[in-house]
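Writing this down once: the sequence line spells out the residues, with the fold written below as integer tokens. I am pasting one below:
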Amino acid sequence: MEGRARAWLSGVCEPGDEGAWRLVARLGAEGAVEAVRRGRVPSGLGITERKLAGWRLRAESFDLEGVLFLGEKVGGRILCPQDPGWPTTLDQLGESAPLMLWSRGCGDLRQLCLRSVAVVGARAASPYGRRIAAELGAELAERGWTVVSGGALGIDGEAHRGALAADGVTVAVLANGVDVPYPPRHEGLFAEIARTGLLISEWPPTAHPTRPRFLVRNRVIAALTKGTVVVEADLRSGALNTAHRARDLGRHLMAFPGPVTSVMSRGCHGLLRTTPPTTRLVTCTDDVIEEVGLIGEGLDRPDDSPALPRDHLDPDSRAVLEAVPATPAGAPAHAIAASAAVDLPTARSRLSLLAATGFIDRTRTGWRLRPTP
């Protein structure tokens, strides 16, 4: 009954409404349903008569049984705060926390979000942003991280596709019912996400998105994950709303820089300019994992500097090579051994090796560096 009551409230009270949350906290879900139906709610909860009238009007046309049937038809499930799979990080949203979630797919949402990163950005993404998002999604998935995004066109879609391409897990947080393919061109993408990951929403099946619902949805993306990465965003992008939510929740906030001439990176650059700094500049997946992972995770990455032939030499060979002069006359083996602080047999064997591999040449009086072409 608890799940049915919360499902009814999800279709009657708009998600994110603090008055609805306080009503459930006071009366319980079933008590809240009865109070709304009677049109009598306790005072002091911030629920105006106008709001209550709106809820009752919506209740007249809300078909709970039909919604439950459609949800079950697409494999949807109801997830409530008392369920084992409920991510407790959502409770940090306080009075704007979700009353329940509709989920479609496989996997335990709580477990999936223990190692998760939100990847968000512009819908009208540039080729640069799309590439970064796809690579980031794939590389995070390969490292065992769940990629969370909003299922929208542009950066969101590319991040989801990248994770799927790497046989990883991704979660799409929707601003509409889990049975509604929005945007329509992502119908196939959502089906694939549901097959291996999860589609989740606070709105019941058949619900369609509105502009305000996207902003309400963003708080869930921020709360579910360890950190949020903004790949591309203009100054009025909804991704910045997610970023601000993540910052307010104390989550790691990261942004990729872009060309200074690109309007699609103005939002990222704005985040990076904030004082005091609250956004970390990242340029690769290792940077992201270094931020959100356990202490030391991501720090074992290889040096990004280009490798030189001498980098592959053993320590004694490098020491001997450093001691070989570049002068035409060169230096004898005993002098090179003393300079390199190795014994004479070691110096001789390494000099022969270095000559064979093209680092040095033998002269009449000793050894010298081979001139660079």
The mean pLDDT is 93. The chain is about 45% helix and 10% strand. Residues 1-62 form one domain.
